[in-house]
Amino acid sequence: METNNIALTGKPQSIIPLNDKDRLAALFRYEILDTPPEAFFDKITRLASKLLRAPSAFVSLVDKERVWYKSNFSTLEVSCVDRNDSLCSLTIINNVDVTVFEDTHLIPGLTDSPYVSAPEGIRFYAGAPLITRDNFNIGTVCVIDTEPRRILDEEKDILKDLATLVVEQIELRALARKATRRHDELYTNLAHNIAEPIKEQHVLLSEAVKSPERTNIIRKAHATVHALQENLETMLGATLQDEEIVAHPQQVAISKIARSIAAEYEPVAKAKNQELFFTVASRRELFVDPDLIREAISNLVSTSIKFTPKGSAVGLDIYESDGLYKIEVSTEASELTTQDLRKIFLKYAILSGKPTGNEEASGLELPRAKKIIELHQGKIWAEHLGKENGKKFVIAFNVD
């Protein structure tokens, strides 16, 4: 791996490694940037914080101009920071197992970062790089503290082990997505090349059965096709089975969850020159699983941003009408077509509309959201806004 080798006596003039183009390509192939929170990565940061006795821990990914947090166990209410301001940018160019700043104020150049120089800013930092199978540093598992401190060798080993676990999970995640896409292709071919012709034959035989001289033969053929169609639908339905979702409901204000989602995705929208508007007209509390509801709403917001043209707007609104508590994610313009809206909640749907920023869309996010909402006895649907190409997703819960 070709990289800059820095000493920890000061911040280098350039924080961009010589192999950054290839490094970014390695990062992008995992399709993990701007994805919703996942329990595994949140467990990693909680463990890092607990085992190293540090108040804050992160799983970070170093993008082209930002450092984005896959997991953020801290009071920092942002999803990413500028690459130039992040100490993780130094970790990925430093040829050591764990990059440590025991007191950042003693390292020339580090106080240029507002996250270091601010009151109660970063005084201690320790980060282990996320090293891919082909030896690229794509991010870190790191901990920070507002007080300077020393670090033990055993604590460095913990960070290295946690970083290894994160990389293994990211690799497995990528393999699963690849397998899912292959399954999608097989499913689509099966549905297109077998299911549709059978339906056509079913219609033709239904018409032909009116011919008296062929009645017995055609009825027999009709029964055969009908049986084949039923068997095929059963087989296709079996491929759509998903893992069981277990809810742990509690009384929560969904508006608070939605507000944090809006804050999380605002930088994502801003990167596409989009505006993300958030309004609340009801702060009613509902008996739901907050983590699952957060995942469902995040999936709707993420999908809307992906399919909304640059320079357009996305809205996240909470309100009540006609005895329903509604969460609405709307776009004033969308690449999603009318046909896309009809099948967007199907697990293996192939959409005509394409993401507007070359983002990846697995086709699994909205089926997952649908399953979560229906588990909570709610409803979810997609519809036109009635103007231009505007679309919206709506979640509704009965509150009567």
UniProtKB/TrEMBL annotation:
GO molecular function, one term: ATP binding
Record keywords: ATP-binding, Nucleotide-binding
Domain of life of the source: Bacteria
Coiled-coil segments: none
Histidine kinase domain residues: 189-400
Pfam families for the chain: GAF, HATPase_c
Coiled coil is among the record's keywords: no
Protein's name according to its UniProt entry: ATP-binding protein
